[in-house]
């Protein structure tokens, strides 16, 4: 079986669909499953079972022999949330529990880190893990991902294969429920559709004119292409 956490969210639901396309239907989907607006993300998807996020660590500890791979995509991703305790519980401690079970029982793991760990990019965007500890995120969400990345790199006991993926501004289908946290592409599309124009952000840096700021984006189906071949 393959586990997908955050399964009824934006990236998780797209990953579930991609795994179905590749012939995988023995999927264990993990999330809260309490948001009606997100229910249609899983319409037509094939899977074996849904498990609530809070019950999953115990389920995994009991059923690890049946699990072949885990995609840990679920997380609290609100960059405007400043309660670090929420991020510690959902992004750090929860991820550590999954990591430890995978390490103990030889389950490969791919987890979602974040481009937010790079902060303003003052230390570059290199994949060299030696540079990870010096990164300086700009918000609690980014720090929660940074703390886990650093913790994972320090562990002597690790899953047999593992990777943390740093997504840069993902956009595409199934993000309609994210509200203000949806991608700039999503908001711009709807603004153009409704008003015929898009509202640009004022620049807070003298080296960039208003509206000339730069940002990397990646289409969610391209993310699926890379993640499912990891």
Description:
This protein has helices at 10-21, 56-63, 84-105, 140-154, 184-195, 220-227, and strands at 2-5, 27-31, 49-52, 69-72, 109-112, 162-165, 170-171, 218-219. The chain has a single domain (2-169, 217-227), classed as NAD(P)-binding Rossmann-like Domain (Rossmann fold, 3-Layer(aba) Sandwich). It contains six helices and eight strands. Helices cover 33% and strands 13% of the residues.
The CATH topology is given as Rossmann fold
The number of strands is: 8
Silhouette: globular
- Number of individual domains: 1
How many H/I helices? Answer: 6
Ordered list of secondary-structure elements with their pairings:
Layout lengths: L1 E4 L4 H12 L5 E5 L17 E4 L3 H8 L5 E4 L11 H22 L3 E4 L27 H15 L7 E4 L4 E2 L12 H12 L22 E2 H8 L3
Parallel strand pairs: 1-2, 1-4, 2-3, 4-5, 5-6, 7-8
List its traits.
single chain; alpha/beta; Rossmann fold; six-stranded parallel sheet; two-stranded parallel sheet; 8 strands; globular
Short note summarizing the structure:
This protein is of the alpha/beta class.
